[in-house]
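Typical record is below.
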Amino acid sequence: MTDTPKPITALADEGPTAPPRSHWRDVWDQFKSHRGALAGGLVLLFIILAVFLGPYIWPYDATYIDIRSRNQGPTLAHPFGTDQLGRDTLARMLEGGRTSIAVGLTAMLLALVLGSLIGVLAGFFRRLDGPLMRFTDLFLSLPLLPLLLVMVLLFREALNGMFGPEMGIFILIVVAIGVTSWMPTARIVRGDVLALKEREFILAARSIGTTNFNLITRHILPNVMSPIMVSATLGIANAIITESALSFLGLGFPPDFPTWGRLLNDATQYLQDYPERVFWPGLAISLTVLSINYMGDGLRDALDPRIRGR
């Protein structure tokens, strides 16, 4: 007696499967769970919108002088009061915030480019590792604030003559902060590249003849974006503080060109009579730096797959 073959039953249609979650969706979910980072992002977004859109909405100009309204306290017309020349403090705060944040973003980008380039080259090419890391150690050993002061004193007049007083000092401060802030990024990227280049997918790509340029751009750089993005958030805060320190010392932008550091410098002369003039720019710098640091903390946790539970 032969066994008859059993009929093949059709597979049950279970309906369409859900698409796999993307990497950035997981990052966003983890970032949202960090309350400090989410609050910092909202505060930073509010500050950026205020300083970039506020001057177009607020009726007073930051450079308008009204001697009859000088040294006023907070009023409905001037919520933050006026300075010794009758200029509206809120208008100067908004204009100064635009300059300080622009300096922070631009200097951060320059530092990230330099640090990422040196870190990738040092980690990927063994013969360049020693010279580039000793070059990094040399910059780390330099006293940064005196170096910044020397750079400003040496090149300020030349750049002011070429680009004008505002643009010249902007370029000088951005370059000075950028070329003295890339070292931590370079070390972090180098360490990640040293670990990545021994991974199986890198060795497989090298075995099929992938060039070094394609290895770096297609495989190495996308996998070191996490520490680069965290360094970016911290670099913005560091650049804002450095620019404020230079302006506070009187070596930043011209006196009639407001920044938060310049407003602090001007307000110290009237600290006993009008202490609120120091409070507003100090609060703006503190809130901006604190919110960026919280965002960096949350972004670091969100980009770490071990913390996300993978």
Remarks:
- DSSP finds twelve helices and no strands in the chain.
- The radius of gyration is 26 Å.
- The chain has a mean pLDDT of 83.
